[in-house]
Amino acid sequence: FLVPDYYYSSELKVFREHLLYCVGLLLFPGNWTLVRILCQSALLALAAGGCLYMARSFRWSWASSLLLAAAYLCPFTFWQINLITFGGHYIVHFGLMMVSLGTLVRLSRGVKKHGWLLWALLLMMALIAGINGVRLLMNFYLPLSLAAAVLYAMEQGTFQRRFARGAWAATLVNAAGYLVNSRVLAKMYSFETMNGQNIVDLRLGRFGEVFSMLLGMFGYQTTAWTVRESLFSPQGLGALMGLATMALVIIAAVYLLRHQQRLDRMEKALLWYLLCAVAVSECVYSLTDHTINECYWIMVVPFAFMALGMAMKRYSFRFSSLSLPPS
Fold first, then answer.
1. In sequence order, which residues have a C-beta less than 8 Å from that of residue 303 and are 6 or more positions away?
2. DSSP labels for 297-321?
């Protein structure tokens, strides 16, 4: 499964979609097109299952959970098509994140039987993610630990204690897995690790540039990867829809922050994880010299959709408020 002369991207990722492709090529060795279709379909099914598991862990209805899975798999931007819907390169990352968060929430609520199985699943996901590289340590486990600290500082309840204990334990296991990747596997195989990143000068303009790339993840054209189009062309309208979607996500986050007292403990955990994930990603991408583009923000997309769904569920809109006053 591991060869010394080729890796996707610049990192060594042991647990990737190539394991599934190996099985497909063993079954259909002479038909790469069929293997590609079958394996990508299986990956999308696993991604949808991860979405459903996470949403149901937050006690969303089946209808809302299915809508979340559909939104996540929808090819709404170039990067979403390339990395998820047809490319599939990030599906394993997302599967680990969604299963881990869903398992952590279930443990935090409390389980009557077989709790050790959920603990084993949580820590196994963390170890696999760590062996795959530093990406999920910075994009998921560190923000998760910060969110757990914020929740525990706000309220020292049973849920918050369990959430913090699980998040911090998973982060430690994930860091141990990354040590295996960077210290053991790096000596066995020739690949570029992320340990050589340098801190750059603090520039406020850089923060704005990096945050604007988040708009690109939702379809707004922000870099040279895309071509300028007319406003009323399909590309231009798509860019406006991406901008509107991102605006709705920001409005939803502000609304949820202002009405935290109306959120249950699980919704607060998701909200603070999303905020910490955006903050950590913004700082890491702005303060290091690693070249990035819009796709680096793809890790926050499913959680942004969940925040938008939470706000829509909590906001009670009444059409009567739009009625004209009597003449």
1. 270, 273, 274, 277
2. GGGGHHHHHHHHHHHHHH----GGG
